[in-house]
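Data card: per-record layout.
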Amino acid sequence: MAGGAEILRAQWAQSCERLERIVAGLTDDEFFWEPCDGCWSVRHGPDGWLMDYPDEVPDPPPVTTIAWRLLHIAHGNWIYAEHAFGPGELNFPDLEIHGTASSAAADLLASQRPVTAALRYLDDAGLDREVPTQFGGTWPAGEVLRTLLDEQVHHGAEISLLRDLYRNRSAFSRPAR
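The structure for this 177-residue chain is written out next.
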């Protein structure tokens, strides 16, 4: 019977492969497409690219673009892995905000590598080992990895749906039957 670490490794690998297929061929138009008013996105400001992320998240939270979701996944991967399995020196403001679909997709795939590497060497006992977080406390390594898997699957599915909606956006103007 497969242990928890083996199952987590397999699920992570499958989610990485799926997300790579989802973002393959992503265009800048899709990346920045705002399906409704008030979306959070990635925007070019006077000092470079910025990601909408106010200190207080409204309730309900706004719809987010593919750009926002893709960077959110990648940044989470980088920072959680940095603190749990690396030196813990980088924080969110240190990360690059990519302004093209191709550079953001490449960064996403790169951000998966440290997580994959951490998983490669963990056994079931290692999943229970307390590791540092960017929040200042510790979590079990398995909780960090499950959080990243959940974010990748959740937001990856949203990116996939947004790509479907983008390809079929002309259908939105059709009269209801």
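Known properties of this structure: The CA atoms of residues 20 and 109 lie 7 Å apart. The beta strands are 42-45, 48-51, 130-132, 138-140.

See the next section for split statistics.
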